[in-house]
Design a protein that fits this description.
There is one protein chain. This protein is 26% helix and 36% strand. It is α/β, with parallel strands linked by helices. Helix 1 (51-67) crosses helix 5.
């Protein structure tokens, strides 16, 4: 996993589910200071077979990178015929890398799906209320200031407790940053592993993801 060629064969995030979206960086490694790549052109690639997912994730990532001073471009805009899901041999991938450098793109930010974890969550719900049997009022102490009033409260169950179990999914993604001007075994300069827990919508998830990734890259 040391170069761009070894990565372009893994499936990526194609759909999102309804729920509460949470994006968290779980692990990261940097082999170079991010300031060293700000003067280089960056190509953003989101590896997905779903065109809408790829388009939105790439755009949001590019917007966040530009806000931080990076010169970035979406692969779908620059290379509309490029299919990141297509597998190729080493010679083809090397040709692709050389073409990117020739076009002025020295840095590639590639995001791909690493794993999907499914889990269940149980929520217990119920309601209670109280009946005050001695509503005596004292001008200084007010209600509920007396032991007799406190002991006179009767607690009544408003509804039985119920448990609801639901199934959720956590998506594990990797964002890999490559410097194509480096030697083949040194091209990978940053790895960021992130988790998207039960994503709510494409827009919210993509924007949150881009913010977290660029934040991690800019440290």
């Amino acid at each position: 996993m040391k170069n761009l060629k070894a990565i372009l064969g893994i499936l990526a995030l194609g759909t999102v589910l309804f729920g509460c979206s949470t994006v968290k960086v779980s692990d990261s490694w940097e082999g170079i200071d991010s300031a060293d790549i700000k003067n280089k052109n960056v190509l953003v690639v989101h590896k997905s077979g779903n065109t809408e997912v790829r388009k939105r994730f790439e755009k949001d990532m590019v917007d966040q990178l530009r806000d931080k001073g990076y010169d970035a471009r979406e692969s779908m805009v620059k290379y509309p015929d490029f299919d990141p899901m297509k597998e190729g041999n080493k010679a083809e991938m090397k040709k692709l890398g050389n073409s990117l450098v020739k076009d002025g793109y020295e840095i590639v930010v590639l995001t791909l799906l690493k794993d999907i974890e499914e889990y269940t969550k149980t929520v217990t719900s119920g309601t209670t209320y109280t009946i005050n049997t001695f509503p005596v009022y004292h001008p200084r102490r007010g209600y509920h200031r007396s032991f007799y009033i406190g002991i006179g409260n009767i607690q009544v169950d408003g509804a039985p407790y119920e448990s609801t179990t639901s199934t959720h999914k956590k998506y594990i993604l990797e964002t890999l940053v490559y410097d194509l001007t480096m030697t083949e075994n040194e091209q990978l300069i940053t790895i960021i592993t992130s988790e998207i827990d039960n994503p709510a919508s494409l827009g919210t998830t993509s924007n949150d993801f881009a913010k977290q990734m660029v934040k991690a890259m800019s440290k």
